[in-house]
Thiamine pyrophosphate enzyme central domain-containing protein (Musa balbisiana), 63 residues
Amino acid sequence: MGKGLVADTHELAATAARSLASGCCDVVLVVGAWLNRLLHFGEPPKWSKDVKFILVDVSREEI
């Protein structure tokens, strides 16, 4: 959820409402992480069924 990129007190910080935010988002930018069990494999109901993932990694083989 961008921990450390946006201050916890910023009006656009979704730290306290991550489940709500992840279930309602249209696009997710995943930088340096995998869609593993911690991110519920990018599957509903945790994520919207129509969500689009943009995966960014330093290693092309990992994507």
